[in-house]
Design goal:
Strand order of the largest sheet: 1-2
Oligomer: single chain
Strand content: 5-15%
Mean pLDDT: 90
Shape: elongated
Radius of gyration: 18 Å
Length: 129
């Protein structure tokens, strides 16, 4: 997965969110899944699907009843992709320093008491490792 996800655009990421939610999508499902989220033409959606297939992020199967319909599914889970994007972000903007990245984000975010408690819990677990 190295160096694969930095090349995914913001709009392509929106398509990935649709397929992660639905599991398997046709091109029409992607267009429908973007309704109310982002106005992208069906033609542009098809171009982005093809790019994601070429990048190895989406895979597909041809419908056995209709060879013009493709059923797409994600090659990687959302968690795998987020981990890769986070790693690349940390390396690009924080010289690989995860502590600095976390501290910067915690200082800038408006966190609820529940968010703070969850972070404390995560840090406590890491402390024990």
């Amino acid at each position: 997965m190295k160096d694969l996800f930095p090349s995914i655009t913001e709009n392509e990421w929106l398509l990935m969110k649709v397929v992660w939610e639905k599991g398997t999508c046709t091109a029409a499902d992607f267009v429908e899944g973007l309704e109310g989220v982002k106005e992208i033409s069906a033609r542009t959606v098809r171009v982005m699907i093809n790019r994601l297939v070429k990048k190895g992020v989406l895979e597909y199967e041809v419908d056995p009843r209709n060879s013009t319909v493709y059923h797409y599914h994600a090659k990687f889970t959302q968690e795998e992709c987020i981990q890769e994007k986070s790693q690349n972000f940390k390396n690009a903007y924080f010289s690989g320093d995860g502590g600095l990245m976390l501290a910067t984000m915690v200082k800038q975010e408006d966190l609820s008491k529940q968010d703070v408690q969850e972070l404390i819990s995560l840090l406590e677990k890491r402390k024990g490792d």
